[in-house]
Amino acid sequence: MTQTLIRFSRVLEIVGDIMRIRLEAVGEGHSSLARFGDLAVVENADGNSSMAQVIGLDRDVVTLQVFSGTKGLSTRSTVRFLGHPMQAIYSPNILGRVFSGAGDPLDGGPDLSADPRVEIGGPSVNPMRRLLASRMIRTDVPMIDLFNCLVESQKIPIFSVAGEPYNAFLSRIGIQADADVVIFGGMGLIFDDYYLFRTAFEDAGVFGRTIMFVNQASDPVVERLLVPDMALAVAERFAVEEGKRVLVLLTDMTAFADAMKEVGVSMDQVPSNRGYMGDLYSQLARRYEKACDYKGAGSVTILSVTTMPGDDVTHPVPDNTGYITEGQFYLHNGVLDPFGSLSRLKQHVIGKVTREDHAQIMNTMIRFYSEARDAKQKQAMAFELTAHDHRLLKFGGLFRERFMDIDVSMTLEKALDLSWQTLAECFAPEELLMKQSLIDKYFPAKGKPLASSEAEA
Prior knowledge:
Elements: E1 4-15, E2 18-24, E3 38-43, E4 49-58, E5 61-66, E6 78-85, E7 87-89, E8 98-100, E9 117-119, E10 136-137, H1 142-145, E11 150-151, E12 155-160, H2 166-176, E13 181-189, H3 191-203, E14 210-216, H4 227-242, E15 245-251, H5 253-266, H6 280-288, E16 292-293, E17 299-307, H7 316-324, E18 327-332, E19 335-336, E20 342-343, H8 358-380, H9 387-404, H10 412-426, H11 436-442, H12 451-456
Helix pairs in contact: 2-3, 6-7, 8-9, 9-10
């Protein structure tokens, strides 16, 4: 579309990065030249220019969100509306590349200006056209693969608090997950976290299948709102046009919500719960509902981080997120909490695409660990412990050491074998209350090596 020059007579208001202008059209029909969501270029009298986006329309008054801030803009500025919303570069050339929150390359790589682009922020897929989730994404994290499987097309957050190693954990999943393409979206990252992700992907040799969209804490706040849309728009293209299994990693969705709150306050919108806008749920759902398993194509799976201020799960961001997503992982004290974590889609893959003993092992291990916690409380309160309590305490220690630490990495089959071995070290077969056929097949005899070890030998 031809760029059209529009001049405005005066700046009505500047609040933060928000600028309101009154248009004086060149020619007839000027109202169609500024559309909600479209991009614009704001050019100052000294020749400097900034990208902006239309975020409000009221007759001839247009509200613009200036990406690089409004510092230096004057009443002599001009606006050029580009006639299209924000676009992200999409081509095979973007694999292994790093982009800013505005979609510009950050890594000094080859020029991509001639590559095709895709508009961001489009509608999600019709639910009637989606496939039922039925394929597992292996992460080699036992607390996920064994107890709360990550399923293709799932949308699931990691609930955590400031200071926890959730970004290091997210990078590990991106490295170990059996996905074709990993798209990372970082919002409000400090440089150390950005560097952590980039070096982790490079050192692990998976950077060639990774695309990064990064908004650092020092970058404009408005770009924080664009990062998820760009990451998901590119993910959709890889899934639909190339049949790729795409894993989208987003951190931190609370930073995204805070940016939305800041922009809303600048626009004089009436805040709702704790200062957040009333459409917080809808804005989060628009992004999370992009997760989909496409018929005859690939899939988009979303794994995000949502930090809980004050470790408060009733905070508006995690509270609204819980109604949208299909479960959550709780990361506390450096471990995944087996009781707070939940994957609502795991029943679609456990025992169907995994080993026959998966469901029984999962339930038995959690049951014994729950009893081990009760035994720990009895011990702390100086109650007399039975022989069974002592076995439970031993099991609880082994369970935390072998499975709960987020640094533990093993395949699902090895985790299942290690579960049988752990049970055998602490309990007799008749104490397991499991199917006898499974006990006969998998319970290790004294001195017998694990099944996976036999296979490797």
